[in-house]
Amino acid sequence: MSEPPTLHVPGGRLQRGSTAAEVAACVEEWTPHLIDPAYAGRFRAWILKEHPRHPVWVRGFRAMAFPVDNAAYAVFCAETGAPRPESLATGLPGDHPVWGVAREDAAAYARWLAARTGRPWRMPREAEWEWMARGPEGRAYPFGARFDTSRCNTVESGRGETTPVDAFAGWPSWCGAVDLAGNVEEWTADRYAPYPGGRFIADDLTALVGPRYPILRGGSFLLGGDLCRGARRHGPHPGPQFRVIGFRLVYDAPAAAA
Q1: Could you read off the pLDDT tens digit of each residue along the chain, which spans 258 residues?
Q2: Phi, psi angle pair for 189, to nearest 5°
Q3: By CB neighbour count within 10 A (0-12 exposed, 13-18 middle, 19+ buried), where does 159 fall?
Q4: Do 186 and 67 meet the contact criterion of CB atoms below 8 Å apart?
Q5: In degrees to the nearest 10, what's the CA dihedral of 93, 217, 78, 167?
Q6: Distances (CA, A) of 26 to 49, 50, 144, 157, 220
Q7: Phi and psi, residue 227, nearest 5°
Q8: Residue 237 CB neighbours (<10 A)
Q9: Residue 97, Cβ neighbours under 10 Å: how many?
Q10: How many angstroms separate the CA atoms of 139 and 25, rounded?
Q11: Other Cβ atoms within 10 Å of 18 Cβ, number
Q12: Is the previous residue joined to 52 through a cis bond, with omega within 30 degrees of 0?
């Protein structure tokens, strides 16, 4: 198996999260379009997890240009005996993103790939993921300022299944990362905690999986476009429509290694 395509993500100052005005605008825009109208009463609290916006310095790193695909993950399963996730068990194409991957298995894949390549692969920190998606200009979505079903695979597109990881290569994020919006949600290395100056949000996720649940980013083909916003924080809800979880990896590297 060859090394995955990577890109250098320059370091910089991320304005992480959302202002009160941005929270209000998101709630106004997306409440009428939620995949379940019953979510409307809880939606504002979910978005408040992004508040307040605050500066974070992100060091440069290297990242996979695409999420890990089925073909690459199948090699890992064959060599290690790791459980085959749903995307492999159901025979989805090799160039589609792997999904149904438990967080510990994503971490095991990182260790396996590090041993094969000699590079210290790991899951991205939450701020690193948001920096890849939003960059110095603070994009609302990885592909631009407005939601666009032609540039990502969410429930609004009506596709009802994953797409190849390079299907939206024409609309990368600012740093060249592809498929950060929709298709499959992506694990990060961090667990939920309020942002500095924010308040702890107790909701269905904290009730179901605990107060320090792992953070997911990016949304999926079964979820709405609100979840592919660059600032949106999510977690591993046990409902079946939330099972479409994959990942991409990063490693620390100086800019000279780009």
Answers
A1: 678 999 999 999 999 999 999 999 999 999 999 988 989 999 999 999 999 999 999 999 999 999 999 999 999 999 999 999 999 999 999 999 999 999 999 999 999 999 999 999 999 999 999 999 999 999 999 999 999 999 999 999 999 999 999 999 999 999 999 999 999 999 999 999 999 999 999 999 999 999 999 999 999 999 999 999 999 999 999 999 999 999 999 999 865 443
A2: -80, -10
A3: middle
A4: yes
A5: 20
A6: 13, 11, 15, 20, 18
A7: -80, -10
A8: 16
A9: 31
A10: 15
A11: 25
A12: yes
- Residue 182 tokens, joined: 């929709």
